[in-house]
Amino acid sequence: MPPDSSHAKGYVREEVAKPEMILTTHAVVGGALASLFPANPIVAIAAGFVSHFAIDAIPHWDYPLQSISVAKGRRNHLKWERPIVQDAALIAFDACVGLALAVGLFSAHAPVVVIMLGAIAGMLPDPLQFVHSLHPHEPLATLQRFHWWIHSKRKLDWPIGISSQVIFAAIVVWVTSALRY
Ligand SMILES: [Zn+2]
């Protein structure tokens, strides 16, 4: 295990409190909410952004990253070494799957651009955590504290943690489709 500076500072162990959710879940939920506001991209963005924190509050599983960490007190650096590139590729793949699913599921109900804005807004708080780890200043510092406060400290194991996400996303898709009619 690599040395972890957060241990030295007495922070919560990283495995317990790594503040990441699978981005696909955030994108699908953001897209679902956006589909309720086809004529109102601002509301779609706001709904997606707020939904991120509601989802994070639910205990869940997330995939391990080798190098990038947004754990409390961790600073990232932008050196393009192999582990960072692999992490970035995994995150980009996750985000693309989420966007594709959101567009595929909801573009019949709202313009593609609105769905994409909702989905991106749903994922956005996690990359903002990474930006904060590079530049720990306001207003991101306040957002980061809130993100940490609301994020579930219980990490579920595979596969229960991932089925909880699929079930949760399915419930949101079902409820939003019921709300549209
Ligand atoms: Zn998050």
Q: Treating each run of at least 4 consecutive H or I residues as one helix, how many helices?
A: 9
Contiguous low-pLDDT stretches (5 residues minimum) are 1-19
Spatial extent as radius of gyration: 16 Å
Distance between the termini: 52 Å
- Helices and strands, in order, run as HHHHHHHHH
Measured by DSSP, the beta-strand proportion falls in: under 5%
Tell me, rounded to a whole number, the average pLDDT: 80
In short:
It is built from 9 helices and no strands. It is mainly alpha-helical.
Topology:
Elements: H1 5-8, H2 14-17, H3 23-34, H4 41-56, H5 82-106, H6 112-123, H7 125-134, H8 140-150, H9 160-180
Helix pairs in contact: 3-4, 3-5, 3-6, 3-9, 4-6, 5-6, 7-8
Bound molecules: zinc ion.
Question: Could you walk me through the main structural features you see in this protein, from its secondary elements to its overall organization?
Answer:
The radius of gyration is 16 Å and the shape is globular. Residues 1-19 have low confidence and may be disordered. The protein contains 9 helices and no strands. It has 181 residues and is an all-alpha fold. The protein has a domain at 24-62 and 99-176. Helix 5 packs across helix 6. 64% of the residues lie in helices and 0% in strands. Zinc ion binds next to helix 4 and helix 7. Zinc ion binds at residues 19, 21, 52, 56, 125-126, 147.
